[in-house]
Design goal:
The chain is an alpha/beta fold. It folds into two domains: 1-30 and 108-206, 3-Layer(aba) Sandwich (Rossmann fold), CATH 3.40.50.300; 36-106, P-loop containing nucleotide triphosphate hydrolases (Rossmann fold, 3-Layer(aba) Sandwich), CATH 3.40.50.300. Helix content is 56%, strand content 13%. The protein has helices at 18-27, 35-41, 48-57, 70-79, 82-105, 122-128, 141-152, 156-165, 169-174, 186-204; strands at residues 7-12, 31-34, 111-114, 131-138, 178-181. The protein has a five-stranded parallel β-sheet with strand order 2-3-1-4-5, sandwiched between helices. The chain is globular and about 50 Å long.
């Protein structure tokens, strides 16, 4: 990375409230660079990821309308775990390049990288990005399960399976410079994030 801008990583388990937090930062004019959105965008028809995945894996993983068939790819990876690495070797460099581009184009006082799976790859991110703060949005698993069941209409078993597929809550929390336990109301969360926002603003100006 060429220019060193004050960089905050925002992360949290699924259904922890991380997207809500990202939106609170955005409302205050902070540039939030969303790794998941970039991953989705590069797989739109005829985008860089789409082209390379199609070339590597063939037409079977694409729908008649040219959209990427994520479910079919998930099934392949489940059967042949080595294929996940193959897919990541295509997508990760493209995602990183776009994150770097957006980071350099940012004009806000500090920049937020929204990385859901930061804990799974923390050493890699620390190696290549000038991370100043890690903000973890934390929720007890029972609350995550309740939110997942309501949000995605999942049953208890499937919701638990998704949570267990991610890194443990303890491992994620160990990486936190700041941790917010999102167990209260939206107003409670907003109050805490505005305080954090002011703190980062002050730190970025030093």
């Amino acid at each position: 990375m060429s220019e060193q801008k004050y960089l905050v990583v925002l992360t949290g388990g699924i259904a922890s409230g991380k997207s809500t937090v990202a939106n609170i930062f955005k409302e205050r004019g902070i540039d939030v660079i969303d790794a998941d959105k970039i991953a989705h965008d590069i797989m739109e028809p005829h985008q860089s990821g789409w082209e390379q995945v199609k070339q590597q894996f063939g037409n079977d993983f694409f729908n008649p309308d040219n959209s990427f068939n994520r479910q079919k790819m998930r099934q392949l990876i489940f059967q042949f775990p080595g294929k996940k690495k193959q897919l990541e070797e295509i997508l990760h460099p493209l995602i990183r390049a776009e994150m770097e581009k957006q980071y350099q184009q940012s004009t806000s006082p500090f920049v937020v990288f929204d990385i859901p799976l930061f804990a799974e790859n923390a050493s890699f991110y620390y190696k290549i990005y000038p991370i100043k703060q890690v903000l973890v949005i934390d929720s007890p698993s029972e609350l995550q399960i309740a939110r997942l069941k309501q949000r995605d209409n999942l049953n208890q078993k499937d919701a638990l399976k998704i949570i267990q597929s991610q890194t443990s809550r303890e491992s994620r929390n160990k990486l936190a410079d700041d941790r917010i336990e999102n167990t209260g109301s939206l107003d409670d969360l907003k109050t805490e994030i505005i305080a954090i926002y002011k703190k980062y603003l002050e730190m970025s100006e030093k």
